[in-house]
Specification:
about 70 residues; alpha+beta; Dodecin subunit-like; three-stranded antiparallel beta sheet; elongated
Length: about 70
């Protein structure tokens, strides 16, 4: 198995639908400018509450991508 080297960035995705959608939003946007995305790790999760209901979610991720092919 070949060895790989990774770099990671931190991004925050947001959504009015939920945390899964916020994660997917962050990954989708990062994939527009970065190649070889390989893994992600949730590092933080927040939400905005209005009238006793969660109205907005934000999820911060580390996204790893391969430097070598």
């Amino acid at each position: 198995m070949p060895s790989h080297t990774y770099k990671h960035i931190e991004v925050t995705g947001s959504s009015t639908e939920g945390t899964d959608d916020a994660i997917r939003t962050a990954i989708r946007e990062a994939s527009k400018t970065l190649d070889h995305l390989h893994w992600y790790e949730v590092t933080d999760s927040r939400g905005f509450i209005e009238d006793g209901e969660v109205k907005h979610w934000q999820v911060t991720l580390k996204i790893g991508f391969r430097l070598n092919r």
